[in-house]
Amino acid sequence: MADPPPYPGAPRWVKVSGIIAIILVLLVMTAIFTGVGGPHGPGRHMPSPSVTEPGVQQP
């Protein structure tokens, strides 16, 4: 009995999708660590400490 042909590996679309996914993850991580895009998080929607409401005295 003859040996079956070797497994050809993953299809091209799987390889390309994986490369694109890795590039996107690297871009997002780079943006997070470099601060590109401005401050994000729960503190972004809160007033800054220098802003006071009318009628409120600062200590």
Describe what this molecule looks like in 3D.
The protein is mostly helical. Helix content is 39%, strand content 0%. It has one helix and no strands. The protein has one helix at residues 12-34. The longest helix is centred in the middle third of the chain and has 23 residues, at 12-34. The radius of gyration is 26 Å and the shape is rod-shaped. The mean pLDDT is 79.
Keyword list:
mainly alpha, 39% helix, 59 residues
The dominant shape is rod-shaped
Helix content: 25-40%
Oligomer: single chain
Radius of gyration from the alpha-carbon trace, in angstroms: 26 Å
C-alpha end-to-end distance = 90 Å
How many helix segments? Answer: 1
Q: In summary, what is this structure?
A:
The chain is 39% helix and 0% strand.
Topology readout:
Layout: H1 12-34
